[in-house]
Request: fold
Amino acid sequence: MNARRRIAVGWAVLCLAGLAATFALGTEPSADTRRSPGGEPAPTGTYAVDCRELADDVAQARAEAERERREALAPSATPVRPNATLRTVMVPEECADEFEDRGLMTR
Reply:
């Protein structure tokens, strides 16, 4: 086999491998195995959500952050490097009313 033919065969093999990989990534997973975007199995049954507990956790975290902010701004406080933490919480739809009633919902 000469060099040109080897290059052509190698190129064809790479193209076919790329097509096969693209096809495999583009196909839908089978219907019997539900997966979440992170690769973990998705829950199939219903589950209970304690909306009050979620709202309490968010309210407590906000109150603690506000207390720390006030302590850092106090005139008697020693200057320290500011520490910022950003926390995002995804709330299930069934808890939206609880969060809105407490004023914790931002959009």
The mean pLDDT is 76. Residues 25 and 91 are 31 Å apart (CA to CA). Residues 52-79 form one domain. Helices lie at 3-26, 51-73, 96-102.
